[in-house]
UniProtKB/TrEMBL annotation:
Keywords: Oxidoreductase. SUPFAM superfamilies: NAD(P)-binding Rossmann-fold domains. One of its GO terms (molecular function) is quinone binding. GO terms for biological process: bile acid metabolic process; fatty acid biosynthetic process. Pfam families: adh_short_C2. This is 3-ketoacyl-ACP reductase. NCBIfam families: PRK07231.1. Belongs to the short-chain dehydrogenases/reductases (SDR) family.
Amino acid sequence: MGFSNKTVIVTGASNGIGRGVAKGYAQSGASVVLADTDEQEGLRYAEELKGNGHEAMFVKTDVRNEAEIRHLMDVTLKAYKTIDILINNAGKALFKPVYELTLAEWDDMMNTNLRSVFLCSREAAKAMRENETGGAIINLASTRALMSEPDSESYAATKGGIVSLTHALAASLSNEKITVNSISPGWIETDHYDALREKDHQQHFSNRVGKPEDIARACLYLTAAENDFVTGVNLIVDGGMTRKMMYEE
């Protein structure tokens, strides 16, 4: 799977899963555009990637803002001439009792997690359809699109919406050689992996909690040119956690 001539945009790339995905593409030879509101860490990480011999740049972007999304695409095209891959990773979580969740909070979750996926995909696709080889879009959903715990209504709704939006976009963009898939991560530990307990790992068939690089490898697979037969799918990457029956002893 070669990415040496590809330009990849990763939203929410300054930290967490997005950071790991950006690193995966950079190490695979792609030119990586990091988009995030965390300017300090984004700039620092872009310099770190470049210091390791990779091609990277940071563009401060609030994905709730349509004008900033268009700016992101314009800057990318000016720097690298093409947009080949888009990773819609930016998002936030909110867990709040249903009786206390405000309309403003609900709307902010929709705009941050779901509407942004539509806007970024639409704007990136305008560039991808000009490519001879088309392009690829990955939307980061969640296993919470399929299962829930209390007080997660706004988050679950956005992630379920991403899964549905993914196959709708796959249908709409199919004639332009643009594949669209989603990934639903399970438990991906981004900060304190060494502090996890044995019983945390044992909740998975894989016998371990996930890491950002697990999601990066899934993105690389789904966006590889030779995998253009795979589109419209939601790939669950959770170490089998959502399939493991758990009983209290």
